[in-house]
Amino acid sequence: MNGSYVGIDLAAQPRRTGVAVLRETGEGALLEHVGVGADDDALLDHLEGAAKIGVDVPLGWPKPFVDLLTAHAAGTMTAPASTGGDWRRGLALRATDLDVHRRTGLTPLSVATDRIAHPALRWAGIEARLRAEGLDTRRDGAGQICEVYPAAALRIWGLAHRGYKGAEKGAPRAALVDALDAQLPALDWNGHREQCAAEDDALDAVLAALIAREVDHGRAVPPPAEQRGLARQEGWIWLPREGTFPLRTDAAG
């Protein structure tokens, strides 16, 4: 472990993909790199040697959805009792999506039915490359990769978690960066603060790196024992523990 953490805000296209590298220092942590516009090769270069990598994208698909597609393709699908909303929701959301909603009230985008599937497909290809190169890509977060959700983390940390994304949201995004700066005196922005205020992809990559550090330091919630097998297929969103805050070791977080 070299004390570096990588955060990736993965988009379907490289031009909107943010990546941040956070490195431990004696007094806190330094943002060694923040950039937007990373292709697959650039991402792999940044991931080399990282202690933990936080990826803001679904790492897998709901098992019931995968099972349905397999049966549908084979022509062996059993007719459901109803094709109503409850049945469709059971196919659209992963176990971790439901857990995030229970904990925070937020519902992650459905990788089965929403446009988030496009970056998820890109990640599936990247995961295959990483696995071929020997990285531990277990989707439950037990290896080098962990799935993160910046908006939910911000909510748990008591910070603004909505209304900061988009070119027209510069003012609320700058306010969020100011709030983070005030709460994170041990974080050295290293000249990247203005970029995070200007680009939400950069800011989310930094948040992903901070969450990855929380996971590595044992301050995030793992999948419960009864869901670990499912999480290895579907992925698991690692949320910070209540009462914790990045780069703090005191009882308040």
Automatic annotation (TrEMBL):
InterPro entries: DUF429 (IPR007362)
Domain of life: Bacteria
UniProt name for this protein: DUF429 domain-containing protein
Organism: Brachybacterium faecium (strain ATCC 43885 / DSM 4810 / JCM 11609 / LMG 19847 / NBRC 14762 / NCIMB 9860 / 6-10)
